[in-house]
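Please decode residue identities from the backbone states below.
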């Protein structure tokens, strides 16, 4: 690749965007023309899985290149300081890069830089000023400068729920717009032009609250959006009375789920336009920046089940939750264009970015560099990926995905080649499940506190897991 040692790197991350919520990945309902065009310029990795599909563990893996079993957090828990041997922004900073974060980091304590020279920090628009965990919010400070003294979450829409409301203030005050504006400020005004930069532009959306600008929400409410996927193993029935708006399991009301998808897609469409604004400002006509080498990486920390199988939110091994978009693209850099089915994860980001920047990784990581795939010089050798969140484990290989619910010893098996929507559970087939059990046993053997006993396993055999639907 040309000028890899001095190439600028822009890492764009969203929060809670599932793999199929991108037009380039086959979705004909959501409109992401700018991200689609960007993905087409580079290498699109179609099999990226988050090994612990919730915010903080995933972001630890991004920073450190370490799997949850190595970095020590395999469930959601806030308030824990992280002290890895080295971090991605720290490596680049030490190599002469100017490192900047704009948006969400979700590390503790708030303000610890983890290798960033500077941070414009806002974990969420739902500001929590009395919390020791999220008391700092630079977005709220900016709103006050604009004369907005209301709490930005005054609409009351849950930060984990499926309810939707149009953004109640001017569109320019939306969290997405603010993030794009701050990224442009760094790129066009505040950066040191004598050194390369690493910028992580970290959007909080499409993570709820589902509060997109009105024009975007109107666009998707006018569409005939598809219903959530419902596997033959999922429960049937009507929503129980009093179901909490943030409940992770249903059954859910069909109209509410349709509005949730509209709000979710609207936020993604809005982010797509915000990314276009950032890149347009970087490549302004007549500006010498347009000739600089720039890698652009796009991904998300986990997905959103969005009503699939009567499930909502994340943390589970199913496709909507654990499978995310991931592509590497750029300008003025030599890259192979195409699609890759190599299994990859956020542990791979650190060694990959280090490779793009010509920086040596000073110690062991659990990820692999994807640079050979991007250049056409090689492949990623990986038999499978093991992921978990709490008591929910999964192993995904070339064809099958195996799920193990450790608290109930239940298991599911899906053929990802013939059944990519996970509609039929094949765990009742002893011949098919045996090889995946062996793979899971090998993974669990690396966790001294876990016990995996094949004789105690209980195939769900195309019935709802009691671990999720008691």
């Amino acid at each position: 690749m040309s000028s890899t040692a001095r190439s600028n790197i822009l890492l764009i991350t969203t929060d809670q965007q599932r793999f199929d919520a991108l037009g380039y990945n086959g979705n004909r309902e959501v409109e992401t023309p700018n991200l689609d065009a960007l993905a087409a310029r580079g290498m699109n990795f179609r099999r990226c899985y988050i090994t612990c599909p919730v915010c903080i563990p995933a972001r630890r893996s991004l920073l450190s290149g370490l799997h949850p079993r190595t970095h020590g957090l395999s469930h959601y828990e806030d308030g824990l300081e992280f002290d890895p041997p080295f971090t991605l922004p720290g490596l680049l900073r030490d190599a002469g890069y100017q490192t900047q974060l704009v948006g969400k980091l979700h590390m503790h304590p708030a303000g610890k830089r983890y290798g960033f020279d500077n941070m414009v920090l806002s974990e969420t628009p739902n500001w929590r000023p009395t919390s020791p965990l999220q008391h700092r919010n630079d977005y709220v400070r900016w709103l006050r400068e604009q004369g907005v003294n209301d709490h930005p979450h005054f609409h009351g829409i849950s930060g984990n729920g499926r309810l939707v409301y149009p953004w109640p203030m001017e569109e320019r005050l939306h969290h997405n717009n603010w993030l794009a504006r701050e990224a442009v400020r760094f790129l066009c005004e505040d950066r040191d032009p004598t050194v390369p930069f690493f910028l992580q532009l970290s959007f909080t959306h499409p993570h709820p609250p589902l509060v997109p600008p009105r024009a975007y929400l109107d666009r998707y409410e006018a569409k005939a959006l598809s219903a959530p996927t419902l596997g033959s193993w999922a429960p049937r029935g009507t929503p129980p009375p009093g179901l909490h708006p943030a409940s992770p399991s249903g059954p859910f009301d069909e109209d509410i789920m349709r509005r949730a998808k509209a709000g979710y897609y609207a936020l993604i469409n809005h982010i797509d336009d915000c990314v276009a604004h950032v890149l347009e400002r970087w490549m302004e006509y007549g500006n010498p920046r347009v000739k600089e080498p720039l890698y652009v990486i796009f991904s998300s920390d986990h997905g959103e089940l969005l009503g699939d199988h009567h499930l909502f939110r994340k943390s589970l091994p199913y496709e909507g939750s654990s499978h995310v978009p991931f592509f590497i693209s750029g300008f003025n850099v030599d890259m192979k264009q195409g699609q890759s089915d190599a299994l990859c994860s956020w542990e791979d980001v650190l060694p990959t970015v280090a490779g793009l920047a010509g920086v040596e990784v000073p110690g062991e990581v659990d990820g692999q560099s994807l640079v050979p795939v991007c250049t056409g010089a090689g492949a990623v050798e990986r038999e499978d990926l093991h992921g978990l969140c709490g008591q929910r484990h999964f192993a995904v290989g070339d064809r099958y995905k195996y799920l193990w619910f450790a608290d109930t010893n239940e298991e599911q098996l899906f053929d990802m080649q013939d059944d990519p929507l996970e509609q039929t559970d094949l765990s009742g087939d002893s011949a098919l499940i045996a090889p995946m059990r062996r793979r899971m046993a090998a993974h669990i053997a690396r966790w001294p506190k876990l016990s995996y006993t094949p004789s105690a396993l209980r195939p769900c055999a195309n019935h709802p897991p009691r671990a999720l639907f008691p």
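Observation: Residues 4-378 form a domain with the Alkaline Phosphatase, subunit A fold (CATH 3.40.720.10).
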